[in-house]
Amino acid sequence: MTGNRPPPGRPGLLWWVLRAQWAWGLLPLALLTDVSRAALAAATASFVAGAYLDWTEARRDHWLRFTPPLLIAAVAAAAADFFRGSQDLLYSVSVLVLGIQSVRFILPKGVRDGWQLSAISFLEFLASAASTTEVQFAVFAFIYLGLCAGAMWALQVQGEEREEDAAVRTVRTGFAAKLLLLAAGGGLLFSMILFIVTPRVGIGQMLRNLRRTEGITGFSDTISLREVTGVKADRRVAARIEFPGSPADIPPSGLYLRGATYSVFDGRTWMRPLRYRMRLPRTGTQYTAAPVPGGTNLREADVTLEAMENPALFVYGTVHLLEGSLGDLWTEGEGSFSIAMPGHPPLRYRIHFSEDASMASVPDPAAARRYLALPAGWDDLVKLSARITAGAGTDAEKAEAALRYFRTGFRYSVTDSASSVRDFLFVRKAGYCEHYATALALILRASGIPSRLAAGYLGGEWSDVGKYLIVRQSDAHAWTEALIDGKWLTLDATPPLGENSPFFTRTGKPWIYIDWARQRWDKYIINYSFKMQAEGVMEGQLAFRRTRAGLARAFGPAKALRRHGAQLGAAILALLLAAAFLRRMIRIPSLNRMSAAHDGEAPLPNDYARLLRRLAAAGYRRTSGDTMEEMMRGAMESRGSIEADASRFLALYHRDRFGAFPLPPEEFREAGRLAARLGREIGRRLAE
Amino acid sequence: MNLSALRRRLRPPRRLRVTPEGKWFLLITLGVGAAAVNTGNNLLYMALSMNLSLILVSGFLSEWCIRRTSVRVRHASEAFASRESLLAVTCFAGRKRFPAISLTLSLPIDGAIRSIRFPEIPGGGAATRVFSFRPARRGALSSVSCEVSTRFPFALFVKSMDVTPDASLVVYPEPSEAEEHAERRNVRESAGAAAPSGRGGESIRGAREHMPADPFRDIHWKASARMGKWMVKERESGRAAVVDIRLPAECRSPDLERIVSVACAFVLACEKEGRPYRIWEGESLRIDAAGGSLRTEALTYLALAGAEEPSAERGAP
Fold it and tell me: How many C-beta atoms lie closer than 10 Å to residue A639's C-beta?
């Protein structure tokens, strides 16, 4: 079909799309992973060079002899990355793939090489998928889907040209763009459906998840006085929490998100008693942390934790039940939970908790001794505690007195803080949450009240858009928990600063929307699970029942519904039949394709059409039935100078329009050039 | 209904064959699926979904491309048995708004499959390819089954369907060479006395439908405008004595092929010279071209002489 050829000598849209697909895999690798930057730079440089060489159609067959040494160099680079560089198998394999890709980019490319480069690009895309959970990956994936469609189409076209042994192939830019958009849109729709319905099973038989955890630090097994406040300068989001059973418009307040509790203090550092760890009983994806007493009104929270380099799970209040695909869960019996791995990718789980601490288990005598232990030689602290709690009869009164003690004479300061707890209590009286929490815990211990330090997050920013709580690193906090009257109570001696806090973080509306997208991505893509699929099916069944019940209400009892349904169905069927009949009636004339109007004739290419218009404008069209040849011969008679061009053009024109096969590309280009030249010549004469 | 007809009816409307590239694609998809199931990584599930969706998109686009495609096969020149002739194959895009892309038409000709490619046919339009062939025997061929296939859009699968083209092909008998030579001699000897005709004649004798091999200068514009299709002029110079061509009444005689071949040569010679002629079958007058050219009718009669009905076995092109 000569009428739909792209302009000669210029690569079409598919040429660019194919190369874009080859290079697109590099982008997520560069932006979302830690693959060797040198390898990425080499691949990018060779891509640019290769694209330029392809554009100029430079002959470089003799370069093929350099392939083996270049591939050996790529293998050596991958080995060096594995042993000396990233020491990560996935990243080293990526370096090898990048090396092979770099070599392929600069060498001449046939159709088979094109398919191989596309496959390499897909492998890079897979490596990115295995290495990241960022929401930006969604954008890469969507564009990549369209590029894959375009690249395969380009390769199909090239393959056909090779089989035909003639480089005449025709993809109009507008049509290609529309079809690629259609393919990308349709592909996205199908992808979403398939993503939702594909059963989520993770058998883990051959390889573990290759993703390397590089997340938030802090909340390790030991913390010093600087540990929590040290992370508060970080504005990254640590967790996003939804409260399914709560009213959506009322943000929760005063909830302490506990990550870890520490009961052993050596004078400078708090530690966790790891030897008391025990595994939580588990049924499927449900973990029972504590029995639920009758009449207790439990709250629910869906926690989406970002990737972390510590095993802590963050919970509210007293947790009774945990749900999620978390593997083995461990607890020290102190209200904190951890997973079996030292770090984790983004996690999502649901907790069922009670805000009050009345259900907390009373520690055994050995543990109770741990909660009362003070560092050796802290007699001054014991005296201070006795002075503070003098006059208080019960533990609750002692705790209240201790809290009251910190409200006067102490100030919150990050810049001028005490260097130790003793410095905080007796000298400087300035510090931050760890100082307050540690000092309160020690005073309570000195007065005989078992107590511990808890670390986690307090509060957060409520998202009005998504109705969830955004917890940032800047919300990190430490507080005290004390066992009073058989209950673990949260005691916070740190003065509430609110918006005056140096770490107070609030974002504008655009960022709230971006965070909402991220939350949805984490919830519905990264943490999409078999459980969510099952819940979706159940919700679908419920919706179906509700609809059926609604219809029954609208149309009366079931018998009447059936009768009305039959009538409705008959009416719809009749309408459809009528529509089909009308459509057929309307389409009959257009279906008569055997008419002579389009009888095997291709549309006239633009160059030819333009020349015809020029000839007609110059007065060479005597009757409406005059052919190109007749008009051109008329022009030749009056203008002898165009005779050579016109004769050559007519020969090509006749072969192109009426010959058995399309013209080869170079002759088609020549015909186009001649038509343009003749048109210019005739137009110039006309102007004269 | 016999077994083959039943099998044809039960055959799925489309056939799908996986290309080598498609096999690799399926293999990679399978690998991604295994990795996704193994790791439980949802982004790998997303990559798996993308691959599967590309397969679905490929199926839809290829169906849009191939659906309702129709084919017409006709002669681009007169076809004589054992002589090179041209066949024009026209493929019509089935959809008005969607072009038919990368179509390959597999047409059984001369006992071999001829592949004809149509890179792109605009929506609602058509494209014609002309190729040469050498029919083995004379006769009519009313139906030719061919296969239309496409690798569009991604070359992962070849989707194909059977099409019965609109074709009424008649292969004329092979003109007897001995008679041709004799006629040429006659023509040379009678040059000047006879009435040369055909395209070189002076007066227009009639018009017939245009064939792709006809030059454009012969187009009869007024007749074309009247008929709504391209017509070409037939010319003649004058009148001459009527030549009678007689075939045996019993058209199943063992010498029939030779007789028909000779008759064909006579008809061609008469047409070339513009001489009037008649064809008799025994005592029955079958073709009377004494009043003007009846070339097509005469040759068609000779092509079908002795045949009960047109069949694919006889005179297949």
Answer: 15
On the question of pLDDT at A659 being above 50, the answer is: yes
Concatenated DSSP letters of A308-377: BSS-EEPEESEEEEEESS--SEEE-SSS-EEESSSSBSSEEEEEEEESS-TTPPPPPHHHHHHHH---TT
Please report the pLDDT score of residue A162 as a whole number: 73
Lowest-confidence range among A354-368, A464-478, B161-175?
A354-368
End-to-end Cα distance, chain B: 27
B2 located within any domain: no
pTM: 0.71
Q: How many residues does chain A have?
A: 688
Q: How far is A457 from chain B (nearest CA, A)?
A: 28
- State ipTM: 0.73
Residue B120 lies in a domain: yes
Q: Is B88 on the interface with A (CB under 8 A)?
A: yes
> Residue A330: beta bridge partners?
A279, A338
Spatial contact of B81 and B315, defined as CB atoms under 8 Å apart: yes
Q: Hey, what are B270's tokens?
A: 């008469």
Dist. CA B35–CA B54, nearest whole Å: 19
Q: What angle do CA A289, A294, A299 make, to 5 degrees?
A: 60
Q: Which residue of A has its CA nearest to B45?
A: A195
Fold of A222-525: C8orf32 fold (3.10.620)
What is the rounded distance in angstroms from the CA atom of residue A494 to the CA atom of residue B183? Answer: 123
Q: How far apart are CA B154 and CA B156, in angstroms?
A: 5
Looking at the 3D structure of chain B, how many domains does it have?
3
pLDDT at A191: 94
Residues of B in contact with A126 (CB under 8 A): 32, 35, 44, 47
Instruction: Tell me whether residue A404 is exposed, middle or buried, using C-beta atoms within 10 angstroms of its C-beta: 0 to 12, 13 to 18, 19 or more.
Output: exposed
Give B38 to chain A, closest Cα distance, Å.
Answer: 4
My answer on whether B245 and B232 are in the same domain is no
Which long-range contacts (C-beta less than 8 Å, at least 24 apart) are formed by B308-311?
B310/B139, B310/B140, B310/B141, B310/B142, B311/B139, B311/B140
Cα gap B275→A54, rounded to integer Å: 65
Residue of B nearest to A1 (CA): B120
pLDDT tens digits along A309-344: 888 889 988 888 898 878 888 887 777 888 887 777
pLDDT, tens only, A81-139: 888 887 888 888 888 989 998 998 988 888 889 999 999 999 999 988 888 888 889 98
- Given 3-state DSSP classes, what are the helix, strand and coil percentages for chain A, each rounded to the nearest 5? 55, 15, 35
Distance CA B264, CA B280 (A): 13
Structural domain including B48 reads 11-170
Please name every residue paired with B223 in a beta bridge, in sequence order, or none if there are none: none
Dump pLDDT digits (tens) for A596-615: 344 445 567 788 888 888 88
> Do B176 and B224 sit in the same domain of this protein?
no
* Chain A residue nearest residue B228, CA to CA: A596
What does the longest C-alpha to C-alpha distance in chain A come to? 126
Confidence band, pLDDT 50/70/90 cuts, at residue B198? very low
Q: Which long-range contacts (CB under 8 A, 24 or more apart) does A111-115 make?
A: A111/A155, A111/A158, A111/A159, A111/A162, A114/A18, A114/A151, A114/A154, A114/A155, A114/A158, A115/A155, A115/B21, A115/B24
pLDDT beyond 80 at A411:
yes
Same domain, B160 and B36: yes
